[in-house]
Design a protein that fits this description.
With 97 residues, this protein is mainly alpha-helical. It has four helices and no strands. 71% of the residues lie in helices and 0% in strands. It has one domain. Helix 1 packs across helix 2.
Length: 97
């Protein structure tokens, strides 16, 4: 039977790995908004792995919505022979073109 690992060891290991993950994120993706936040407030490094997972999941969800919508728009334009009004500015609806 394997020996149980104490909570202190797990927390310490998490903090060390979160610190290295944050440092590597800043090193390799220095222009991302998350990296800039880490550089501005480096003491939030324990939360960075969780924030990075949430950001990655939101980005994946965005693309899962964006690409099917673009495909549907493309198919609609080809079938109807007309362009959609997606490029029209919002102010044009209120103040005319």
């Amino acid at each position: 039977m394997p020996s149980p690992v104490s909570v202190e060891v797990v927390i310490g290991l998490y903090l060390v790995l979160a610190f290295f993950f944050s440092a590597l994120l800043v090193r390799f993706f220095g222009q991302s908004s998350l990296s800039k936040s880490i550089r501005r407030h480096f003491y939030i490094f324990p939360a960075i792995p969780l924030i990075a997972i949430v950001v990655l999941l939101l980005k994946m969800l965005w693309y899962l919505i964006l690409y099917p919508t673009r495909l549907l728009r493309f198919l609609f334009e080809k079938l109807s022979g007309k362009k959609t009004f997606r490029k029209r500015k919002y102010h044009a609806f209120f103040f005319g073109s």
